[in-house]
């Protein structure tokens, strides 16, 4: 679930993600970026993630996976998970945490964008992170009209989660 929240990937991108789509770009410190080939036409995007947690998660997940290359695999069918399964898992976790359940799973991509924007990431950088071709799509999601003047390195935003 953390990967879902902190990656900014859409549900469909998450479900289509394969281990072979993930390329580590920078491994010099604990915060790093990964290149992920996702979305329409397998566009490449650089996703900032905490290296230590992400690698730990991937290694554990790959060992337990009964699918060859699919990151989010259904245990019952040896295939990728369905949207319904992801939704069920997310809502069970929210309920367990004492939060409102029955939240649309698309909210996590939106939350990622708003979280980054509130911490000073420009709408143009968020557009790149989300894989939007049109800045208006990003601005509509953020519901903002102006660019934040404070610029931060995207990886720095996620240091608070280490």
UniProtKB/TrEMBL annotation:
<feature type="domain" description="Tyr recombinase">
    <location>
        <begin position="1"/>
        <end position="156"/>
    </location>
</feature>
<dbReference type="InterPro" id="IPR002104">
    <property type="entry name" value="Integrase_catalytic"/>
</dbReference>
<dbReference type="InterPro" id="IPR013762">
    <property type="entry name" value="Integrase-like_cat_sf"/>
</dbReference>
<keyword id="KW-0238">DNA-binding</keyword>
<dbReference type="InterPro" id="IPR050090">
    <property type="entry name" value="Tyrosine_recombinase_XerCD"/>
</dbReference>
<dbReference type="GO" id="GO:0003677">
    <property type="term" value="F:DNA binding"/>
</dbReference>
<keyword id="KW-0233">DNA recombination</keyword>
<dbReference type="Pfam" id="PF00589">
    <property type="entry name" value="Phage_integrase"/>
</dbReference>
<dbReference type="GO" id="GO:0015074">
    <property type="term" value="P:DNA integration"/>
</dbReference>
<dbReference type="GO" id="GO:0006310">
    <property type="term" value="P:DNA recombination"/>
</dbReference>
<protein>
    <submittedName>
        <fullName>Integrase</fullName>
    </submittedName>
</protein>
<dbReference type="InterPro" id="IPR011010">
    <property type="entry name" value="DNA_brk_join_enz"/>
</dbReference>
